[in-house]
Amino acid sequence: MSSEALTPDRILEATEEVLRRYGPAKATVVDVARALGVSHGSVYRHFRTKAALREAVTQRWLGRTEELLAETTASPDTGPGPEKLRAWLARLFDAKRHKAGDDPELFATYSALIDDSSTVVERHIDILLGQVGRIIEEGVQAGRFTPADPAQTARAVFAATSRFHDPAYAPVWSSEGIEAEFTAVTDLILRGLRP
């Protein structure tokens, strides 16, 4: 048995390792407990079901991107409007590419888990849309964007850039010319938002 206190964070870290090793189809709560040196009942005290554990680990994974992008949203280093939106979109694309390229096994695992965690994904998208909406609103107030409904505009920007953040497009993220494509789409969006 492990002498270290069992916390939700420790369980989630172990769950990531187990998912990386076995994949979502074969990973079990017993595997997670074994990796931690505890009984599976101890894991269930923190996460009542296997589904709850999978949702929590998916939320943790998506939350890392949310936190990274929140820094860009709040940063005074980029000007309001176009500069901040470009930086936010670039950071989202970069984060997604790193997740897919640096650890393809875990990325594939999370892509499978996301299919089972629709409420977690919906919440994640809502958070990202909220961040883009704040950037749009800030840009409108600074006179850098045309006055428009920030929420509706955020949805349009998010949809227009889906090729650069939707996991379904991960196979093209390392293709030749993807950077130029990203720049062209971003430039087009920013021209469309200009007053």
TrEMBL record:
DNA-binding region: 28-47
PROSITE patterns in alphabetical order: HTH_TETR_1 (PS01081), HTH_TETR_2 (PS50977)
Entry keyword annotation includes Ligase: no
Keywords: DNA-binding, Transcription, Transcription regulation
Cytoplasm is among the record's keywords: no
Domain HTH tetR-type: 5-65
Alphabetical list of PANTHER family matching this protein: HTH-TYPE TRANSCRIPTIONAL REGULATOR RUTR, TRANSCRIPTIONAL REGULATORY PROTEIN
Name used for this protein in its record: TetR family transcriptional regulator
Organism: Streptomyces lichenis
